Amino acid sequence: MPDMGGSNRSAKKSYATEAARAIKYRNANLGLFEQLRGVAVVNGTVKDLSPKVKSYVEENVDLCQPEKIHICDGSETENHHLIEFMQSQGTIVNLPKYENCWLAKTNPADTARVESKTFICTEERSETIPTPKDGIKGTLGNWISPKQMDQAIEERFTGCMRGRTMYIVPFSMGPIVSPLSKIGIELTDSPYVVASMRIMTRIGYQVLQKLQESDDFVKCLHSVGTPSSGFTEMPSWPCDPERTIILHKPKENKIVSYGSGYGGNSLLGKKCFALRIGSTIAKREGWLAEHMLILGITNPQGQKRYIAAAFPSACGKTNLAMMTPSLPGYKVECVGDDIAWMRFDKNGQLRAINPENGFFGVAPGTSTKSNPIAMSTIFKNTIFTNVASTSDGGVFWEGMEDDLNPAATITDWRGNKWTKASKTPAAHPNSRFCTPAGQCPIIDPQWEAPEGVPISAILFGGRRPAGVPLVYEARDWKHGVLIGASMRSEATAAAEHKGKVIMHDPFAMRPFFGYNFGHYLKHWLSMEERSTNLPKIFHVNWFRKSSEGKFLWPGFGENSRVLDWILRRLDNEDCSTETPIGLVPSENAINLSGLDEEVDMGQLFGLSKNFWLEEVFAIEKYFKEQVGDDLPEEIRAQLKALKRRVESMN
Ligand code: GTP
Ligand code: SPV
Ligand code: MN
Fold this sequence. Notes:
It contains 17 helices and 33 strands. It is α/β, with parallel strands linked by helices. Bound molecules: guanosine-5'-triphosphate (GTP), sulfopyruvate (SPV) and manganese (II) ion.
């Protein structure tokens, strides 16, 4: 039976020792404990901290002034304490319908990532973001100077953990034994963060032990904060939305996050480390840290390949990563659903690891029909956040109607009675499940392979209601990089954006670049020199709509029909036709057999000269205004060539 993603594997303590420690913890007479900078260490021992970790902790104990220090060991006992404590605070409630499942409801002001308050700190602004055209506001990240960063920290963190426990969370991104993995230490005053990090990453003693050898780690400091008025509106979910700030200093491998307990703002291994700091490390070391799912797919002939795919937040990564193919004979297995760390091995083969250990997935829309695999993963050992609850001790969200016990009543994510006639959603549109990857029934046998899995194709995609066909293939690597750079998608609830505007989201990384996007493009282009066996690049769009506003493509398991075409292209099958935007499936090349719904392939693949002229114009404008002189010459040339091809369309 898998535990909560945690690692009692890592803390091989006898039950008796664990129990003794538990009693000691409960009867905490703080004076009896070992001290660090005059603060009681109520769990773990200081000698387990390497000199560098110890001094990082000391420095921040002095700054944050917690009442207690808890060094996380990743054990079951520890998790029980956290769960008990959070229940007593009202942060989580049990969901008796399932096994070891919990529901957290956040402050309604703290439900998503806050991109406008997320900063990268470098000496020069141009290291962080390209210089936008005069008078234009840059949208490729926010820069902060070292001086301003220090000031922001001092203002917010001085004494911010008074009366609270500082948890020291040693975590590994990637399997602890993998040479591709990296270690972080997150200091946090949120037990919710500890319990979630225990699922999303590998935490505990083994990580501290590894640090005794290398002592190289990413410094992650997090506090939910306290409003400057001192008044905490919702004691079960303390936060400070007005002063929330998420800071990254790549030069020092340092992350500082204040004021939010929510997912991407607080589980610092995820977007902050694995993508923002990760992309800067990857640039230095010559690899790629990307917002991509990784899946294994076996065709009816038994040939298995791996695909990585970058879609923006809430655009279908988790769904594709766990897809149940509708095409007979196909099998999909999941390596990861959000982040890929990829590098070319000595044979020029691109290999990827999933640095995470769990799924922090969008709940609404997840159903037995759309994603049965997720549904059979998430009802044990899971923390749900901001979903609705049912009177029979379960959860509910939009899409779960068929799974609902008709006798049960529903309480929405804000705690109000909810019925199907209600005008507001039952679950927050960005509500999430946080569940151990290892219990996914189709987890790939190689998902923890230290050397990673070989990647044969890279997909880019987004929500494009108009103009963009279901799938097309890049002409070559450089053209593929242009396709990634040109990605656009309809805004979703995963961040603070309002409405359904089509936003530029290059490589699905716009919120996650750790350095200047122009330099990032150069880095991608340079991969061409590392291999003679580059993955093929494709663009997919599950979200094209008819003139009546209906999805033209059934999506989900039916996307296997698109993957089937992609795999045949990898085998160099002659099943594509050149168009100005790239290669599309030739007539009847997409296998539609057994599809019980009528699909208007004409509308789904239609290419309009006007649409593509406007698209090229929008991309040109975007590059000119946002990337300016940092745009690599090759990309400028690729766009020019695309424009010429589109202009010559009938
Ligand atoms: P993040 O975790 O935010 O990075 O999101 P994600 O990219 O993993 O998105 P996810 O798979 O959770 O999907 C988000 C939403 O898109 C859900 O409501 C899904 O039901 C919906 N969705 C996913 N795949 C498809 C598809 O093929 N067609 C349609 N129409 N909707 C889809
Ligand atoms: C995303 O927004 O891309 C997510 C969720 O995966 S969060 O962890 O909040 O960033
Ligand atoms: Mn994501």
